[in-house]
């Protein structure tokens, strides 16, 4: 038998991911695009409902308050997604609510001046205004870093090797949102996981009118089937004598969203009253804004690959961060109870459907705005049990992580330096946040527990984020360890042409602003 040729053993690196049906600037038919946009809207509901469901009761709010916060979050999420896809990075990314803001927000909720208010509704309003004030001030971090191009300058220290741990932990770092949540109601979660994988992977070649229906709409089909199954279990009394926690995770009638939702309600700025400002709250929130910035940077690079685009140039990345800062400012003005970041699950859906079209995401933003105004209809979809979303997250987060790992093809993984940086960054990126999580669960406060509350919030927020820890470790090691002689190993010869807008002719096709706005904001 003849010895295999080198090209038969290894695969050549590729600038753009192959095998996608539609890339960033190619569009499916309008009917297909609308159905895909609705699918992205359904997936975005998970986080948009989970965050207010967790926070609003702690703030003293009732079911009516929870519905209004969900509506507001979805409304602003739609606006931010449109702004990002039109004027920001222009990548097909949903900009939604972020869990990174939990530490400073919970710190505000437990502030003695707010926790001491006896009337629950008054406590809710005052806490919301305090969160709004902190978000408004903290948003200046991303606005300044983005529009001043400071983040573009910082990104010049990033290489493919340094960014791989960050991009992969954008997905892997969310492991606690996956199967641990599925396990809370296995009779719904596991069938959902199996059905979604079966439709999207094993039956993906099934076609109707030359359209791979099961692959393209696996999420919509599987959510509909399992949601109906969960409703059947609820209606048949399967959970009647089960513990309260099981009922909360399994039943389809426990969210109390539909009964509490108004028919029509348009969210508007300062709807909860005038924001209040506190320096300590704002400093703590700034850490979450930095975490959001780092996580979004990794997610944008993954999204560019799943949209079959080139990596976003430094100027475009910084522009996107500036608009994300505007998004957090809008979160503060409208009162969404949390800040914004790129929705990782929706980035994963680009790969699952093999459709990276920008138009699809813009249509999904339209659905977010539309259903946030029509309260009853939006509440119907928002009552899908969280376990169903968690089952999908198991696939989506894993897919995002694997795309991050795919950037290793541009580096030399036969180098001990590359192996050391990648391995240590990935391990510490998972291990350090896990230590902070376990410590917080046991002690009911983070490892940083000094008298300066803002300092505690800052450190605990930074080190609870896997991508942030990975960035600190990997970029430091990559720029200090045998730095001068390692350009080839780090993947810099490939990376350098994507640093500037004019470095690659394809950048103009993917990232030029619409309406000829590039005249006013010339790319660097």
From TrEMBL:
InterPro entries documented for this protein: NCS2
Localisation per UniProt entry: Membrane
Lipid bilayer topology: Multi-pass membrane protein
Keyword Membrane among UniProt keywords: yes
Pfam family, one: Xan_ur_permease
Annotated GO CC locations: membrane
Primary localisation category: membrane
Segments passing through the bilayer: 38-57, 130-151, 157-175, 182-202, 217-239, 360-382, 388-407, 419-436, 458-477
Keywords (A to Z) from UniProt: Membrane, Transmembrane, Transmembrane helix
Record keyword Transmembrane helix present: yes
Protein family: Belongs to the nucleobase:cation symporter-2 (NCS2) (TC 2.A.40) family.
Name of the molecule in the record: Nucleobase-ascorbate transporter 2
Native source organism of the sequence: Cinchona calisaya
């Amino acid at each position: 038998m003849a010895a295999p040729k080198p090209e038969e053993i290894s695969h050549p690196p590729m600038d753009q991911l192959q095998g996608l049906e539609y890339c960033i600037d190619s569009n499916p038919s309008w009917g297909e695009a609308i159905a895909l946009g609705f699918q992205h809207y359904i997936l975005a509901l998970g986080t948009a409902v989970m965050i207010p469901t967790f926070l609003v009761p702690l703030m003293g709010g009732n079911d009516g308050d929870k519905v209004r916060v969900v509506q507001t979050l979805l409304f602003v999420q739609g606006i931010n997604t449109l702004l990002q896809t039109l004027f920001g990075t222009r990548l097909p990314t949903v900009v939604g609510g972020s869990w990174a803001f939990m530490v400073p927000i919970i710190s505000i909720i437990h502030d003695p001046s707010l926790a001491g208010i006896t009337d629950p509704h008054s406590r809710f309003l005052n806490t919301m205004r305090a969160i709004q004030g902190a978000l408004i001030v903290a948003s200046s971090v991303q606005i300044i870093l983005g529009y001043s191009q400071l983040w573009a300058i910082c990104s010049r220290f990033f290489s493919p090797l340094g960014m791989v741990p960050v991009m992969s932990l954008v997905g892997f770092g969310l492991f606690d949102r996956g199967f641990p949540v599925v396990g809370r109601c296995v009779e719904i979660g596991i069938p959902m996981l199996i059905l979604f994988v079966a439709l999207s992977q094993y039956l993906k070649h099934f076609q109707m009118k030359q359209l791979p229906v099961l692959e393209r709409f696996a999420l919509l089909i599987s959510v509909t089937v399992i949601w109906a199954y969960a409703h059947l279990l609820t209606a048949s009394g399967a959970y009647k004598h089960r513990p309260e926690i099981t009922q909360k995770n399994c039943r389809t009638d426990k969210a109390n969203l539909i009964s509490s939702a108004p028919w029509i309600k348009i969210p508007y700025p300062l709807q909860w009253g005038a924001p209040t400002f506190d320096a300590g709250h704002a400093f703590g929130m700034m850490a979450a804004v930095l975490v959001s910035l780092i996580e979004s940077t990794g997610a944008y690079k993954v999204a560019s690959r799943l949209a079959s685009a080139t990596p976003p140039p430094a100027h475009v990345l910084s522009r996107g961060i500036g608009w994300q800062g505007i998004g957090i400012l809008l979160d503060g003005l409208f009162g969404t109870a949390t800040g914004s970041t790129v929705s990782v699950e929706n980035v994963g859906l680009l790969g699952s459907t093999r459709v990276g079209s920008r138009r699809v995401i813009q249509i999904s933003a339209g659905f977010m705005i539309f259903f946030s105004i029509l309260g009853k209809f939006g509440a119907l979809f928002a009552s899908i049990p969280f376990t169903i979303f968690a089952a999908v997250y198991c696939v989506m987060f894993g897919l995002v992580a694997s795309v991050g790992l795919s950037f290793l093809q541009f580096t030399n993984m036969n180098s001990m330096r590359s192996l050391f940086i990648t391995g240590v960054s990935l391990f510490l990126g998972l291990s350090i946040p896990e230590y902070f999580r376990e410590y917080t669960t046991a002690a009911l406060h983070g490892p940083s527990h000094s008298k300066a509350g803002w300092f505690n919030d800052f450190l605990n927020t930074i080190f609870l984020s896997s991508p942030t820890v990975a960035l600190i470790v990997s970029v430091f090691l990559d720029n200090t360890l045998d730095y001068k002689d390692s350009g080839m190993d780090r993947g810099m010869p490939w990376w350098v042409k994507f640093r500037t807008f004019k470095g690659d002719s394809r950048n103009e096709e993917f990232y030029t602003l619409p309406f000829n706005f590039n005249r006013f904001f010339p790319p660097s």
